[in-house]
Amino acid sequence: LLAPADSNSLADGCQKVREKDIPVVLIDSSINSSEFDACYMTDNIDAGEMAAKEMLELLYDAGNSPTDPLEVGIQLSSDTSQAMVNRVSGFLNFWAGNAPEQWEKLWDEGKEQWEIIQDIRVNGGDTKKAQSDASALLRENADIKGFFGCNNTSTVGIVNTLFEEERTDVVLVGFDLADETKQMLQNPEYHAVTVLQKQDQMGYLGMLSLNSLIKGEKSEQKYFDTGVIMVDSDYLMENAVS
């Protein structure tokens, strides 16, 4: 049972294991190979699209106008993780089709469309680097009004920066639910939501699958979407999460 942090580095090892007729089940992320028996994970492209939809709603709720110049920054922990890559891809795809467009009138007035900052930061799973990267993006981009954190450490780093600099004008869409993220969700001065993966279910179903494979049972399906939950302040209150 493997939870790949790098979608490339485990490919050869998985192949060698399966050549010895040992079943391989992946959770949380896949590998860049078909050498596994089953994978239980979030549909990360879909989750990225959901995150972009939430981002647009939060930006409007925060009072931003489609005619205002606006930028959104993105952070991820690793660009070698297929899960991270797919989240960003899903986010960008939805954004491209749904963010305010650059109408001719706006162009004549010198206005800019809502844009994604091309400098997508990779923090290597280091919360302190994620925090410093978020701070740098705020300094370097005067029109930044939103952050997308593609994983837990990125989200926590962004949260810490927004709290430290008291940037209540910048909205956040994150991933997972650290204590710091809960504090921001519960603070009415901030606009934030986070995508919560069903990680316990990934592990549980992964072990069940291994048990079946060891018994000789096979499944034609390789990928299983474990789904996500969009968590905001209302969700925390309704589910008594403190």
Could you name the key traits of this structure?
single chain, 242 residues, alpha/beta, seven-stranded mixed sheet, three-stranded parallel sheet, 10 strands, elongated
What's the short story on this structure?
The chain has nine helices and ten strands. It is α/β, with parallel strands linked by helices. Helix 5 crosses helix 6 (152-164).
General description of the model:
The structure is a single chain. The strands form two sheets. Strands 3, 4, 5, 6, 7, 8 and 10 form a seven-stranded mixed β-sheet that branches. A three-stranded parallel β-sheet has the order 1-2-9, covered by helices on one side. The protein has nine helices and ten strands. The model is unreliable at 103-107 (pLDDT under 50). The chain has helices at residues 11-19, 44-61, 82-98, 104-108, 127-140, 152-164, 179-186, 199-214, 233-238, and strands spanning 25-27, 38-41, 70-76, 114-116, 121-122, 144-149, 171-175, 192-197, 223-225, 228-231. The protein is of the alpha/beta class and 242 residues long. Helix content is 44%, strand content 18%. It is elongated and about 60 Å long.
